[in-house]
Specification:
The complex is a heterodimer. Helix content of chain A is about 70%, strand content about 0%. By secondary structure, chain A is mainly α. Chain A folds into two domains: about 90 residues, c-terminal domain of poly(a) binding protein; about 30 residues, no CATH class. In chain A, about 20% of the residues are buried. Classes of the chains: A mainly alpha, B alpha+beta. Chains A and B meet through helix 4, helix 5 and helix 6 of A and helix 2 and helix 3 of B.
Chain lengths: ~140, ~110
């Protein structure tokens, strides 16, 4: 979540963002929501379904997630403009497409913690030095 | 397209898309259309988009936004020098794999 120290930000803003998370992310998220709202109904329904899935199982936090939602909006706007049928967009297995899409962005905190726990447990079990590899991106 | 073909295609799709782009720049829809013409009918358009996002993030393609008559500007992808290098490696890996599998098949006779 940390955006790093930003000298140009007022102390008040710095304090506020400690509480709310980066305001820039919130602005980008609101913009994304507005773009989805503008989509024709079937595309909007599909985009919202994808968003629900990503909220639970995708990179739910941080700037990486905002880039992901913007790419999602790009895809649906383009598909709506081209008239791509929803089934052609998602294919026979929607989960496969959505997972391939989500894999392009940094893992959410929860999933990366679970992965790192597995990696270090295997290192310990294998009798290796800890921190030999770190899969978090 | 059978299930087996779809599974095999997954591992090579990135190389296929880069190979298409080495011929000429294209946007996402054109790539999917080309794949369908070639009989790769099971590939979701979204999967191609996700792949294009990935190769862009990894710096293998250059992207130019071209205004379109209807809808948002289109992203046109073209292979850059790094992408060409990557594609060469893909073909080397492919040759290796194809050769070994052929040996396996002949040995099994």
């Amino acid at each position: 979540m940390a955006t790093g120290p930003d000298e140009s930000k007022s102390r008040y803003l710095q304090y506020l963002e400690k509480v709310t998370g980066p305001l820039e992310d919130k602005r980008r998220y609101r913009q994304y929501k507005a773009r989805v709202k503008q989509l024709p109904e079937s595309y909007r329904t599909a985009a919202e379904a994808m968003e629900r899935y990503l909220m639970l199982l995708g990179p739910a936090d941080g700037a990486g997630a905002m880039a992901m939602y913007e790419d999602l909006a790009d895809l649906f706007e383009q598909s709506a403009a081209d008239g791509t049928p929803i089934r052609d967009l998602f294919g026979d297995d929607p989960v496969e497409f959505v997972e391939a899409f989500a894999a392009n962005y940094p893992l959410g905190q929860w999933r990366s913690r679970v992965r790192n726990r597995l990696i270090s447990a295997v290192e310990r079990a294998a009798g290796e030095e800890p921190g030999r590899q770190d899969r978090t991106e | 397209m059978g299930k087996q073909a779809t599974e095999m295609l997954k591992g090579t799709l990135e190389g296929i898309v880069l190979a298409i782009l080495s011929g000429q720049p294209a946007y996402g829809y054109e790539i999917t259309a080309w794949l369908r013409e070639q009989g790769f009918s099971d590939i979701a358009e979204g999967t191609i988009y996700a792949l294009l996002v990935r190769v862009e993030q990894r710096g293998l393609v250059d992207v130019e936004k071209v205004p379109s008559e209807k809808g948002p500007p289109r992203k046109v992808y073209s292979l850059n020098a790094q992408g060409r290098e990557y594609l060469e490696e893909f073909w080397r890996t492919w040759s290796f794999l194809a050769e070994r599998l052929e040996q396996l098949r002949e040995g099994g006779k």
